[in-house]
């Protein structure tokens, strides 16, 4: 399972980078442009994904879900306001932290007890939650793709099959 966790996370990093690379090809204002969609702008989507990923990393590292959510709320406004280059750098820094963490095989199956602030306790492991982190990113990259199409631009391909092809080519 540990190899799967790391490999799927590596795909997530690649797919996020595909999106950043595409955004860098577009006019700079596209990043913060108001769009009538699920999120008000692409910067809001990427802020949400980053803060969610950061929150899970905090939980994986031993913080409570309540503390992770509080951190996300504290950083939300300033993260949404960042320019794309700053956001890309933050994603890369966080991905390095994830990679180092996921390479520590003893961390992957360590029991986690997550207390949901709304009530209830979930007992799980990091290796069981990494697919959630990746799936969450995939879902929101789809939002970005739709948003770009709404304003007349093509997105970037981020399919897992393409990732595997590119990795083996």
UniProtKB/TrEMBL annotation:
<dbReference type="InterPro" id="IPR007837">
    <property type="entry name" value="DinB"/>
</dbReference>
<keyword id="KW-0479">Metal-binding</keyword>
<comment type="similarity">
    <text>Belongs to the DinB family.</text>
</comment>
<protein>
    <submittedName>
        <fullName>Nuclease inhibitor</fullName>
    </submittedName>
</protein>
<dbReference type="Pfam" id="PF05163">
    <property type="entry name" value="DinB"/>
</dbReference>
<dbReference type="InterPro" id="IPR034660">
    <property type="entry name" value="DinB/YfiT-like"/>
</dbReference>
């Amino acid at each position: 399972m540990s190899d799967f966790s790391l490999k799927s996370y590596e795909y997530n990093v690649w797919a996020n980078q595909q999106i950043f690379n595409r955004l860098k090809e577009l006019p700079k204002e596209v990043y913060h442009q108001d769009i009538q969609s699920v999120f008000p702008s692409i910067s809001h989507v990427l802020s949400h994904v980053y803060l969610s990923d950061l929150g899970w990393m905090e939980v994986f590292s031993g913080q409570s879900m309540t503390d992770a959510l509080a951190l996300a709320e504290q950083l939300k406004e300033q993260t949404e306001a960042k320019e794309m280059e700053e956001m890309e750098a933050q994603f890369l820094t966080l991905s390095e932290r994830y990679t180092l963490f996921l390479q520590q095989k003893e961390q992957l199956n360590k029991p986690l007890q997550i207390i949901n602030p709304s009530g209830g306790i979930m007992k799980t492991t990091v290796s069981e939650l990494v697919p959630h982190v990746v799936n969450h990113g995939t879902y929101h990259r789809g939002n970005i793709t739709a948003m770009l199409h709404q304003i007349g631009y093509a997105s970037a391909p981020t399919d897992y099959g393409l990732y595997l092809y590119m990795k083996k080519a």
